[in-house]
Design brief:
467 residues, alpha/beta, Aspartate Aminotransferase, domain 1, Aspartate Aminotransferase, domain 2, 3 domains, 7-stranded mixed β-sheet, 4-stranded antiparallel β-sheet, 18 helices, globular
């Protein structure tokens, strides 16, 4: 077996099978695929590996090329079935968009839009003008702006109002959320200087008062979105901070994280901070996310005093973290629903998911059982059981929402192996493991058949235990 037995790239490209690939794929991409495979074979031969002569034939190489090109053709970002029971699952894309937002994104993606064009004046306009108008109407704020996420919103506010100066924060509010987002690190990147006050569980007004100096630029309050401290606790409320800020002429900012535009308690859930109510308490600025409880696209929203927002808009960093036209389109459509819809809980998928009747969730789970049992085959036990869902992404961290799950177990296969096989389905089905059961939560499932795995042709379902 010698290197001379390998066909040249030109011979492979002239083969009828390759001509069919060239109809589907870019020529340079196909050429590179040929070269890569030939290089791999040359290395194997040079290193003395045993290679069957048939593997060096054109047909074998082209079969390998076809598999490689079609395998690489699979999208990295794929649809999955969210059967975890976490409504706002950060790893699975958080909020599903309302249909009105999807339609707006399609229009903005496929048609010219007046992103930065004032139709009335016939000249350049502001890209966030419609967003600002809607947020002002929904929150009562004097002004508003939008950036690409809430971390960017906090960064921009701190950089604009407090770079090189001190920002006072309670130790109990120096949070870390998913993806290692930490308030102290964001503050450092902004150029602001952190000044901690109080203790982890108790902070008093005097702690802030004693920390205020001529170097103080800002009083920052951070909503502890993803945890709760209970027991012997004390915190300084926003009204007290606002009064303190006015007394000393220092701006007050609140980072709500997962801010809500409607009162969740009307749906039987604990109340999350409502942005309009926080704005009414008088802080200079409030920041919150667009893709959490609000149920829109990823965005960071800043609302508050007009004079503060004018300074923020003039910061060059504002342009660096601005939103693209697709986010603007989706966010405007979502906010317009909050402003105009008579059935907001039905129109916003996040609100629809958390208010879904338990009987409807159970019906979905029960209707999935026959097809699921058939797909899994013998040896599996499948049943519908009571469980709880959660909001996720830091919202309502201690609240468990009653739900129905399909519990799957096997005498020989562990729950984690079953979960792994469900992730190999097309589309992948993502559930959760609890107490040696693999659970499929039906809360977020509209079609019962979405819970029934369709495995790839070469797979025949969950692997049987080996003897």
């Amino acid at each position: 077996m010698t290197l001379r037995e390998l066909p040249a790239v030109s011979r492979l490209l002239a083969h009828p099978r390759t001509e069919r690939l060239l109809v589907r794929f870019n020529r340079e991409y196909v050429v590179q695929g040929c070269r890569d495979i030939l290089d791999e074979l040359r290395r194997a031969i040079s290193q003395g590996h045993a290679i069957d002569a048939a593997a060096l034939e054109e047909d074998a190489i082209l079969t390998r090329l076809e598999a490689r090109l079609h395998g690489a053709d699979a999208a990295g970002l794929r649809r999955v079935v969210n059967a975890t029971g976490t409504v706002l699952h950060t790893n699975l894309g958080r909020a599903l968009l309302p249909q009105a937002a999807v339609d707006a994104v399609v229009q903005a993606a496929t048609q010219p839009v007046n992103l930065e064009y004032d139709l009335a004046q016939g000249e350049r306009g502001r890209r966030e003008q419609a967003i600002e108008d809607l947020l002002m109407a929904l929150t009562g704020a004097e002004a508003a702006t939008v950036v690409n996420n809430n971390a960017a919103a906090v960064l921009l506010v701190l950089n604009t109002l407090a770079s090189g100066r001190e920002v006072i924060v309670s130790r109990g509010e120096l949070i870390e959320i998913g993806g290692a987002f930490r308030i102290p690190e964001i503050m450092a990147r902004s150029g602001a200087i952190l000044k901690e006050v109080g203790t982890t569980n108790r902070t008093h007004p005097g702690d802030y008062e004693n920390a205020i100096t001529e170097r103080t630029a800002l009083l920052l309050k951070v909503h502890t979105s993803n945890y709760r401290i209970v027991g012997f606790v004390a915190e300084v409320g926003l009204p007290d901070l606002v009064a303190m800020g006015r007394k000393h002429g220092i701006p007050v900012v609140e980072d709500l994280g997962s801010g809500a535009l409607v009162d969740l308690s009307r749906y039987g859930l604990p109340k999350e901070p409502v942005v309009a109510e926080r704005v009414a308490l008088g802080p200079d600025l409030v920041t919150f996310s667009g893709d959490k409880v609000l149920g829109g696209p990823q965005a960071g929203l800043i609302v508050g005093k007009a004079d503060r927002l004018r300074i923020i808009a003039a910061n060059p960093l504002h342009r660096a973290v601005r939103c693209d036209k697709l986010t603007i389109a989706a966010l405007e459509a979502t906010l317009r629903l909050y402003r105009e819809s008579a059935s907001i809980a039905q129109d916003i998928p996040v609100l629809n998911a958390i208010t879904r009747p338990l009987a409807e969730i159970e019906d979905t789970a029960q209707r999935a059982l026959p097809a699921l049992r058939s797909a899994l085959g013998p040896g599996f036990r499948v049943s519908v059981q009571d469980s709880t869902s959660q909001m996720g992404s830091g919202a309502l961290p201690t609240e468990e929402i009653p739900t129905k799950v399909i519990a799957i177990e096997h005498d020989f296969l562990g729950a984690h192996r079953i979960a792994a096989r469900f992730r190999q389905a097309r589309p992948p089905i993502i559930g959760r493991v609890k107490d040696d059961w693999f659970l499929l939560d039906a809360r977020l499932i509209a079609d019962p058949l979405d819970l029934v795995p369709n495995w790839a042709d070469e797979l025949e379902g969950p692997e049987a235990p080996r003897s």
